[in-house]
Structures are given as structure tokens and as C-alpha cells.
Amino acid sequence: MESWMMAIAILLPLVAGILVFVIRQYHVQSFIVVLTAIILAVNSILFLQQGSFAYSPGGFNWGLIVTILDYVILLFYLYVGISLRNWLVLIFALTQLIPLAYWEFGMKAHVELTPAFVVDHLAMVMTLVISIIGSLICIYALRYMYDHEHHAKLAKSRQPRFLFWLIMFLGAMNGLVFANNLVWLYFFWEVTTLCCFQLIAHDLTKEAINNAARALWMNALGGTAFVFALIYLYTTQGGANALSVQNIISGNIPGAVIILPVALLCFTGFTKAAQMPFQSWLLGAMVAPTPVSALLHSSTMVKAGVYLVLRFAPAYAGTHLSTIIAIAGAFTFFAASGLAISQTTGKRVLAYSTIANLGLIIACAGINTPLSIAAAILLIIFHAISKGLLFLCAGTIEHQIWSREIEDMEGLAAKAPLTTLITTVGMLSMFLPPFGMLLGKWLALEAAFMVPLAAIFFVLASSLTIVFWTKWLGRLLQVLPKLGWPREKLSLSYSVPLWLLLIGIFVIGLGIGPIYQSFILSATNNVIAGNQIITFGWHSLILTGTAFVEKGILGLFPVWPLYLVLAVALLLPLLFIGLKPKELRPVYLCGEQTGNVGTDEWLAEADVKTKFQLGGYYYQKALGEKTLNPWVNTIAIVLLVIMLGCGVILK
Amino acid sequence: MINQLITIIVALIVAPLIGGLLFGFDRKITARLQGRYGPPIIQPFYDFFKLLGKERIAVSKLQFIWIYGYLIFMVVSLVFLVLKLDFLLLVFLLGFAGVCFVLGAFSTKSPYAHFGANRELLQILAYEPVLLFLALGIYAKNGSFLINEIFKQDKPLLFTLWPLFIAVLVVLTIKMRKSPFDISTSHHAHQEIVRGTITEYSGPYYALIQLVEWYELVLLLGIIALFWANPLWVGILIALGTFILELLIDNIAARMTARWMVRLSWSVGLILGIINIAYLYLTKGVA
């Protein structure tokens, strides 16, 4: 049973990927993808039923296969570096390849380790996110890529190749979160980097290839840190046992030895989670077709980065490294939220928001209390749902107006009311109560006082967050006084994932009590063996027991009542306010409008009939990338240096 | 449970009465300061019912949704205060009310409303961090985010959180949209943005806006009263004192720009907040 579940989670995506690559018929491909999606989703729920277990695959010499594939991937990086004449890619491919080869062959390292996989509750949470949300995005990609290629008028379809990498990504992610052997974790890590590179470069434009190369070298830099962590652990501890994730986090290895490799691993996590100063690869990844962005941002890739930092939280708990991770994450949260305000492209706002929220999650890992770890896990789940939804919305909007610019989305509510409605809920769910993201942010803030500097960044960042979301929403909602909505039809491949994710926001949000009790609590205990600090009544979340109030109540979040309030406040008016034609009036323009009520033409200078136009504010002088990036990157690099320095000194 | 229900109902009825009276008082005082006689103190209520009786007019089919959101989330924030619940969540709920207000203005194609909405966003940016800092300060002092815990302490918050108190006074001015912060909309005649965010409201929906303003005023004064929660009457006197101070400032100050406002609150307000929290962190430490 367990071996089947593992095989399905890791290998089925590979098999399905090969099948869709070979069979080039749209309908057969769709069938395979949908079937794989359903099996993966069911399988991830089975993991939950099964409970924790350790597992080592038998049969083949899997260790050898992993080693060979490691080198295949690294040699491919070399090839990319040379063929694109991109020296950074080349250098960081070599910095991985040479030490790894020296270690494995020169020093004849013996890296076999049992168990190879450990499925604990944190891994289960991750695989649920990967398998369910990732699969929905793959389904969405079917139709999206069809439209995408139709619009681009490609002679020969490249969709099979695209779907191959997309689906395989899910398998690599599952392997990554299950792996207990760090060498295997490293292998899956490189596979995700490879998939990411292929997907970003998919359109083969010059920009796409450049940005893919940038993603590759930044992640290869992280991979280099990973390799050094491996070698350091192995040599100082003298054996493969030091390469067991469970050993590292259970405190079996003395803290003084562990801190440098853990700092390196966190650095690796920072690169993949696009923390500042590595944010540029994720921003560049926006050139890829939208399902790629949706996948990278919600359930895969960047979540691997935060997973790594969160996974090793017990190993650096109580050290200065933990504090500096909290501050670095919180700083990214703050700086990315500020930069998001100046963005004029929808997908870039989403990207900055992702970077910001990953910073928040990493900061929670760094704060390293039971409360903050629970917050981090909740944020991973809710962020995956909401951000997955928003990217799919962005893709849907793009295929209706063929633009990604926020200014082109002006008045979208009047053209595509259904998409706008879903997008609006998605955006509100990112930053307002009672939605899950805000719940997580609230938890994080209640925990943040342990690291006051992080708390200050949290406060500033959440204020900035309100501004950029509201600003964008405002552009969508601007409508003229007219009655009735146009009928909007979406393809099933679009609407099913959209609706499911939308429903997911509410189901998980409303059911957070039982969900927390049934598995998030155990996942938190996988990271920090803390007492239960969150309790749920049937409708409320209560935080108890704090630093200086004995058994007092720290905070209270009435979940259900607030959803009820939300329904009364926004849903009821939406359903029950009906306007009559005679109630419609033009807006205030001193009577200079021309024509009837629903017009936006007026008599401008010299009484010339002109359509009046409104624009959004972007504050590019004050908050633009040109102004802020030098500062932001400098501070981020200093923080990173301190972080690695912590590893060296504390040793 | 029954007690809580009664508290809620009383608060929902009494708060707008107090708020309306305070606004009437405001108009009277301001008139006197300007050498006019001024309307009767209960003029806001006359206006309110007059507006309610008018025909409904719409310039956008989306605007009204957000107005109800504005009203209801403001009321819920007030409920959080009177039930002495989580202060941090109260600030977030107040934020939702603010967002609804902005989106109401954005959902029309009106240049003046958009001016106001964009500026209102800057106002949110200016006051939100200070309120969140206050929440952190309350936690640092009491070890809990619950307002209930504030009432259990003998020593008033004002003694330890006085820097944040000063910052909150600035927030009060911004929130009341009084000079020098009457930037997104105004109670005086500043013609160039007409009435900013609320330009496009009329009749019954404008009455709703006024109702929300009354709730909001009471809520903010209530938050200020928390600085001296034991005994509460001292806190209420302090709150009323600050209200009168606001009226004076309103009448002697000219309007400043939105940028200046954000700079002021992000420099002075934040420095006060940070000093306050740092002091508490260092003296109390984290056990």
C-alpha cells in the first residue's frame, strides 16, 4: 500500500508526462491529465488517512539512478551555460558539479541511507497542496495552452513538451517533501530547478530564454550552497547518518556542528523562495505562460524554498540564526509589498505579493515559536489556494483582453463580470478578514513580538499590502451607470479550476477548526514539539498561554461569525439591490456630459467631444524599482551575509 | 450571552446618537470660532432623516454593495470594542471598512471620486501602521491582545504608552478627515476635488455614509478612552478632550498634501511607535 502511494505521488506524474509527450492528440492528452489529477488528489488524501510512515524503495538500485540523474542534470546546466554563453549559469553549474563529483568519487562517499523517505504531517500538508492545487492548475493549462498557441499562431504545437514539464514538476515536488536522505532531497531540488527553467523558457523568445537562464543561475547558486552543506555534514560527522533530515532536526547531531550547514540550507531555501536579493528570477518568470506562474507561485517551486527553511526550523531554534532569518524574511515582506505598489503589470503585482508572503512565511519560521510555526503552515496552505486562483484569474483576463497591464483592465466588471467577481473574491481573500491569509497574518503578528524588528516590518508591510490590492481592485470595478451584466462563458477547463479554488477558499476558511485539529496541529508538532497553543471552539479560534500571562487568553478570532458578517455585508447587497432604469444618473462633471446617462464622453477644451479617462496611481518616483532596488538589494545582501556569518561564528 | 447581546444592541443604538451629537457640537463650535451663529446641535439628525427620505440615485451598480460593507464592518469593529475582544483583529476589521469605503468610490467612473479614493488609500497607509503598533504596544504591556485584559489592569496604558498616544492623536485627525488631513474628502468647502470620495453619494446612501461617520467617531474616541480604562470615566474625559483639541486644530490648520501626511505619520508616528515598543521590549523582555 505504502509503496504504491509513494510510486503514484512521485512516479505517476513522470509516466503521465511521458504519455502526454508521446500522444499528441488534444483530447487524449486532456483525458490523461484529468485522470492523473484525480488520482494524485485522491492519493494525497490517502496519505492523510495512512498517517506518518518511513519508507525505503526496494527493487532497483535507486541510489545509483539518483546519482546518475544528478550528473545528467548538472551536465545539462553546463550545456545551457555554454550554448547561451551565460557565464553565471556555467560557473554555478561547475561549483555544483566539481565538489559533488569530488565528494562522491574522489572521497568515495557512501550516501545510502534508510529510510530514504519519511512521510510526516508537514510532508502530508505539502503533498496535499501540491497534488490538489497543482493538479487543478495542470487542468487549467490544457485549454490555456490551446488558446495560447492559437493566439501565437504556432506552426507546430509545443504543448506536449509543456505539459510534460508541468506534470513532472508535481512528482519532483512530492519527492522533495518526502525525502529524508538529503542527497535525494538535493536531487529532487535540482529536478524542480530544471522543470522551472524549461517552463520559463517555453515560448523561446529572447526575453523568455534570458529570464530562464537567470532563474537557472540563481537556483544553481542555491544548489551550490546545498552541495556544500551536504559535504560539510558528511565530512564533519563522518557518515551518511548526518544526511538524514530527521536526524538533523531531532537534535541528534550537536548544535555547534549543525548550524553552518543549516545556514547554507536556509540560504538555498532563500534562493528558491525568491527572497530578496534573489527576487528578480521570479519576476522574470512572468514571461512564461500563466499556468507556469500559477504553478510556480502557489504549489511548487517557491513553496519548496519555504518548505526547506521551515523543515530545518528545529535545527536553528533559539539561535541568532533564527532571529536573523526572521528579520530577513520580514524585510522581504516589507520591501516587496512596497515595490508592489509601483507595478503597472498585473502579474508583477502578483509576483511581488508572492515574494512578500513567502517572506512572511520564512519570518514565521525564524520567529520559531509554536504559534508562528502554525501561522507559517496555515499561510502556506491559504497562500497556495488564493494565489493559485489569482494567477488563473490573471490568465483568464489575459485571454479576454490580451493584455497584462492593470490599466487595460479598467472597467473589467462591465465586460467580464464573472471573472471579475472571482478575481475580486480572490484579491479580498489575500488581505482582509475573515479570510485565511489574514488569519495567518494575524497569528504571525500575535507571535511576532518575540522578534520586535520583524514585528515592525510586519506592521508596515501589512499596511502597504492594503494599498496595492485595493488600488488594483479599484481599476477592475470602475463601471458606468448601466443596468444588466453581459453573459460571460468560460471554457470548462478554465471554470472548473477557478470555481474549485474559489470554493476551496471558503471551505478551508470555514473548516479551519477541524482541519487544524486533524492535521495542521500534528504538522506544527513535526516542526516544533510545542504545547497546543491554539484551541478552537465550534466557531472561534482562541490563542492561549503566553510568555507572561499564565494560561491567559492571548487573542481571539471568531471565524464563523466573521464569515457571516462578510456574507451580510457584501453578498446580501450584491444579491438584493436591484436598480431601476429611472434611478440611473451620470456622475458629477458639472453637467458637461454629452448624450445619455451611460456615457463617458464630455465636452473638453473648446467644446470638443472627448472620452474622459481615469488612471491609477503608481507612485513610481517614490516606490519604483529604480528608486528602491539599490537600497533594498543592499540591505538584503547585508542580511544574507549576517545570516551566513551567524553560521560560521556560532559554529 | 444575553448580556453580550444587550451590550451590542445598546452600543448600536447609543453610538450613533453620541456620534451625531458630537458632529453637531463640532459644527456649532466651528461656526462660533468663525464668527457665525451655527446650526442647532441636533442638526446632523435633521439632515440624516431628510436625506433618508429622498429618492435613491445611482451612478454605478456596484457602489452600494461597498457602502453596506463600509457600514457593517464599522459596526462590527465597534462591537469588538464594546465586547472587549481582540484589538489586533479590530484594527484589521476597521481596515476592511476603510477598503470598502475606497472601493465604493473607485466603482464609479467619476474623476472626483477617484481623486478621493486614491488619497484615501494614502490616508489608510498613514494611519494603519500606527493602529497596528498600538495593538503591539497593548500586547507588550499586557501580554494579551484582548481589550478585556486592558480593563483588568490597575495602571492605565497612558503611563507606558504615551508616545503611542500622541501618534494615535494624529490618527484621529486623519480618520476624522479634519484639517490638516482633510485630504480625501472634507467637511469644509474645498472645491477642487468637490467632495472627493463621497462626491457620488446622495440621498439615502449619503445618509448611510453619515451614519458610518458617527459610528467611526465613537469607535475612535473609544479606542482613545482605552488609554485610561480604569476608571473608564477618566478615559472618556480624555477622549472628549482630544475631540475638542481636534476641533481647534481643524480650525487653525490649513490642509496639507497627502504626501506630507504619509511622511509625517511614517516618520513621527512610526518613530514614536518604535521607541515605545522597543522600550517595552527592553524593560519587560520576553520570557
Notes on the protein architecture:
The complex is a heterodimer of chains A (651) and B (287). Chain A has 651 residues and is mainly alpha-helical. Chain A has a domain at 319-533 and 637-651. Chain A is built from 27 helices and seven strands. Chain A has helices at residues 2-10, 12-22, 26-50, 62-83, 87-106, 121-152, 159-178, 182-200, 206-237, 245-249, 255-272, 279-284, 290-298, 302-311, 313-316, 320-341, 346-367, 370-401, 412-415, 417-431, 436-447, 452-477, 492-510, 512-527, 559-576, 620-623, 625-650, and strands at residues 53-55, 117-119, 534-536, 540-544, 553-558, 601-603, 609-611. In chain A, strands 3-4-5 form a three-stranded antiparallel β-sheet. Chain A is globular, with a radius of gyration of 25 Å. Chain A starts with a helix and ends with a helix. The mean pLDDT of chain A is 89. With 287 residues, chain B is mainly α. Chain B has one domain. In chain B, 73% of the residues lie in helices and 0% in strands. In chain B, helix 3 runs parallel beside helix 8. At the A-B interface, helix 21, helix 22, strand 5 and helix 25 of A face helix 3, helix 4, helix 5 and helix 10 of B.
